[in-house]
């Protein structure tokens, strides 16, 4: 049988972005079958190549100077190094843009205009180009010129104000999320916007400019917390691991550690009470409905904390898993990758890389997009810096002598 055609087979992406949000978007497009060419700075490359520790290791276990961070968002790409500040480098990127369907960039607003690589310039040579700009604050507004990073946006959007323990509790105070979630969500929203623009191009034949901002995304993913404030005029507060609107939906100390309960409706609570021999709790007017359990949360916690310490985490999971009562462990990342469900889903992927740098295998996380007919495929490992420069230049029609000259002049 022949291999299925990937959803974005034949689509060409020019990735001028670096760090996380833009590269995450381009990687998703690559996972879906698009051909992605990543342009990096000669010698330096993407910033995240140097964001370590931790670092990649060679086959014999020796640590390299290549940070592992880069590998999380740059698989299924080829890397070419080009000096964008040089006229010859700009000309090469324009050649690549002529043939591209999509361009992703995350330079400061107006940063590419002086190089002739802004949307208005490139649309003249390629009207079908879908040009996605990712910035901290968008192309308009008083903050548009500012640089923006995930941590800054987590703080400005209010996300940190609702993450962490309340003031006055041990460890209280605002916290960032343990992953750069605003960057990741911006990459996902950007990919979704690009796919919508591709569909629109099927009808109109024209590309368009997409203006993505980390702050916009940071505000959007506040979700229920945002609309709760907007509609009820109540500012959400930090609540640790307790859900402000559902309960009991939190972690509890168990006999040997911690266990998480995620009871989201009255039926689940009743089944929990029956399983633990506490049917009276479900009949108690304070706890029968979710709204009451939130109002009387402290009363319910006083009953549940001693109960939850009577069993180990594994015993709680065994008791509740066939009762349709969501219950689970609080894993560290190593434990998560050892979980039988994670293993069964094939989420740890190892990819061989032949870049002449002794790094034989790179591990990554499989795409969570599971399309039955046209599934994402890891076709290329995260590339070494400039690994495909000569290959891509040859595809642009440059001879070996011309390629050698571009190298000697520092253009690539």
From TrEMBL:
Protein name: CoA transferase
Transmembrane regions listed in the UniProt entry: none
UniProt keyword annotation of Cell wall biogenesis/degradation present: no
Keyword field: Transferase
Gene3D superfamilies linked to this entry: Crotonobetainyl-coa:carnitine coa-transferase, domain 1, formyl-coa transferase, domain 3
One term of GO molecular function: CoA-transferase activity
InterPro entries linked to this entry: CoA-transferase_III_domain, CoA-Trfase_fam_III, CoA-Trfase_III_dom3_sf, CoA-Trfase_III_dom_1_sf
Organism in which the protein naturally occurs: Comamonas piscis
Higher taxonomy: Bacteria, Pseudomonadati, Pseudomonadota, Betaproteobacteria, Burkholderiales
Keyword Transferase applies: yes
Domain of life, per lineage: Bacteria
